[in-house]
Amino acid sequence: MPCLLKLRTVLLCNYPYLIILLIVAIITIFRLQLPKESIYNKNSKVFAGVLEEYQVDGNKLTLIVSNKEKVIGNYYFKTLKEKNNFLKNIKLGVEIKCFGEFNVPDKNTVFNGFSYKDYLYKEDTFFIVSLSKYKIINRKENIYYKIKNSFYNRVKKLKSAPYIKTFLLGDKNDLKKDVKENYQFLGISHLFAISGMHITFLSGLLLSLLKKLKVREEKRYFIVMSFLSFYLILVGFNASILRAVIFFFLFSLNKIYYFYIKPLNIFILTLAISLLISPYFIYDVGFLYSFGISFALIYFSSLLNSFKYYLTKLFITSSLSFLISIPISLYSFYQINFMSIIYNMFYVPFVTIILFPLSLITYIFPVLDNILIIFIKILEKSTIFLKHINFGILIFPRFNIIYYIMLFIFIVLVIRFKNKILWTFLIFVLVFHYNYLNIFKSSFVTFIDVGQGDSSLFYSNGKAMLIDTGGIMSFNYEKWQKRKNNYSLVKTRTIPYLKSLGIKKLDVLVLTHGDYDHLGEALELIDNFSIDKIYINMGNMNNLEKKINKKHPVKKLKQGDSFNLGEFSIVSLNKNNSNENDSSLVLYIKCFATSVLMMGDATVKSEEVILDTFDIGKVDIIKLGHHGSKTSSSLKFLKEVTPSLAVISAGRDNKFNHPHEVVLKRLKKLSIPYLSTIDKNSINIDLKTLEISFSLD
Description:
Layout: H1 2-12, H2 15-33, E1 46-57, E2 60-66, E3 70-76, H3 80-89, E4 95-103, H4 116-122, E5 125-138, H5 143-155, H6 161-169, H7 177-186, H8 196-212, H9 217-235, H10 239-256, H11 263-277, H12 285-299, H13 301-305, H14 310-333, E6 335-337, H15 340-364, H16 369-387, E7 393-395, H17 401-417, H18 420-434, H19 436-439, E8 443-447, E9 456-460, E10 463-467, H20 489-500, E11 506-511, H21 516-519, H22 522-528, E12 531-536, H23 543-551, E13 555-556, E14 562-565, E15 568-572, E16 587-591, E17 594-598, H24 604-613, E18 621-623, H25 635-641, E19 645-648, H26 661-669, E20 674-676, H27 677-680, E21 683-686, E22 692-694
Parallel strand pairs: 3-5, 10-11, 11-12, 12-13, 17-18, 18-19, 19-20
Antiparallel strand pairs: 1-2, 1-4, 2-3, 4-5, 6-7, 8-9, 8-21, 9-10, 14-15, 15-16, 16-17, 21-22
Helix pairs in contact: 2-11, 6-15, 7-16, 8-9, 8-10, 9-10, 10-11, 11-12, 12-14, 14-15, 14-17, 15-16
C-alpha cells in the first residue's frame, strides 16, 4: 500500500514526464543518426517475400513486398487477359518472387521539393524495382491476411468501397487523386486518416455495448484495448492511429487504477512511447498534425469548456486547431487557408456523425451502399465547388525548420496568455514572413528539372515569369491501359517550388512552341495557379494551344517584340517559320549586367536568322536549344555569342541521347563550361552575383 501511494505521488508530479520526454528526445536524435542499410544492392536482380499491398492503375501494377525489408516493384501488364488473371487470382499475404532491375529512388529534383528517396528510407524501403516478371510461390496466407482479404472481398463490389476502405482500414489508394487534392487544399484531409476521431467513436461504441451487456468496467476497458490492439495491427502502425490507440490505453489504465494522471501528462507519455517505437515519426506530417492539434485541445481544454453553445465551441475548436497547425502547414505545404476554419465546422461533424458511422454500418449491411453514396456525392461536389473559392489562401516562402518550431511555441504562448502585445507581434511576424520576398528583393533564374523537357523560372523584385512547363509524353493507350492517376510535373514539382519561394502568381507564362515537352503541363498550371499573361510563338496553333487559349487568352510574340518585368528586359529574337522547332521563341533577357539567352527548341536555321537580324554579342548564360540536340547550337552560333556558361535541360536516360556528343565536343572546343539537369537536377543562378546552387546538393 505505501508503495502504491508513493507511485501515485510520483505520477501526480509533472517533472517525471518532462524528464522522460527529454530522455526520449535525446534517444530519438541519436537513433536518427544511425545509418540503415539494405540487404539488396543495385546489382540485385531477384527478391521474394510476402505481398503486403498492391495497386492496379490502368496497365500499371505496383507491388509492395516485405521480407526483411520492403521493396516496391512496378510492372506493366502486356495484355488485358494478364491483368484480369492477376486481379482474379491475387491475394494479400501470398509469397511472391519478383525479377527485375533495382533502382535507387529519386531525391528532390527541385529546391524545397519532396524527396521520395528520403521518404522511403524512413519507411525502410531502399529500392524501386522495374519488374520483368513475377510469380507466386506460395498461396497460403496467414490469419492476419485472411481477415484483410475477407474485408476487401466484402466491399470490392460496393460503389462506396473507396471510402469504406479509407475510413475503416486507412487505405486511400482507391480515392481519386483530384479528390484527395481537393481535401488537402481545403484543409480537411486530416478527416480521412484513421486517428483520434475514429478511435474515440469505435471505443465509445464498444464500451457502450459492453456496458449494456453488464460487463464490469475494468473488463470492458481491457476488452476494448484488446480489440484496438488487433485493429492497430490490421490497419498498420501509422503515426496518427498509433497516437490515438496509445493515448486510449494510457487513459484507460489511468481510469481503471485511479492514478489521477493529468491528461497533458498522458499526452507526453504517448508522445514518448510513439517516438520510441519509431523516431522517424517526427518527419510524418500526419504525426505532426495529430500531436500538435491533440496537444492544443488538451492544453486549452478549460478554455474550450468555458463555452456553452455547441456552435461557439465548434468554432473555437476549429480556430484553435487552425492556429496551432499554421507552422506545420507552412513548413509542409507553404500555404494556409483561413477558410478551413469554416470548412471544418461543417465537415468535421459531417464526417464524424454521418460519413464514418455510415461507412461502418454499410460494411455490415451492404444494402445501404446507395445511401452512403449520396452523402459521398455531397462531400465531393461541395469540395469541388469550394476549391474554386480562392479567398483566404495565403502563400508563404519556406524558412529554416527552427523558425517553425519557434513559431509553434510562440503561438501556444499567444493563446495561453491572451496578451494584445503578443497577438500584435505574432501578426507582425506572419506579415513579415508573407512579404519576405518583397522586403529582401532578389533576381534569379531556376532551370527546373522536368525530365526530358524545358521549364525555367525567372524572378525579379516580386515579378515571376515561367518559360515553358515541361510535359510527359502520353501514348495512345487502349481503354484498359489508361491510368486514373497520371503523374503531373506541375503539381508535384513546379507549383510546390513556386509556393516554397512565396510566389503567389505568375505575371508571365511563355510557351516557346507547341511541342508537348514544353507546354504539355500548361493546362494543369492554368487550373492550379494564378497567371496574368500567356505568350506563345507566331506559328499556327495546335490542338493543345487552342485549348490553352480557350482557358486563358494568349498573345503571340513576334520577332522584335519586347517587354519589361521587374529588373528584366526581354526581347523576342526568332521569327515564324514553317517548322515548329524553327519557329520556337528565342528570348534575350537582360538583368543588371547579366544576359541570358533562352533558345527553346530553336534549330541551326533559327540561329542563322537571329545572327543575320541581331547583333547579340557575348552572353553570360545560354540555355542550349533543343536539349542539347545536334540540330542546334552550331559552332558558328556558339562562337558568336561566346557564353560564359551553357545550361542543358534534358532527362536522364532519354531515348534521344540528349545532350548529343557532337554538341558537348563543340562546348569543349570553345572552352564553354556547361551544367545539365541530368547531373544536377534543378539549377539556380543568382543574376546579380552569378552564384550557382543545385537541388541535388
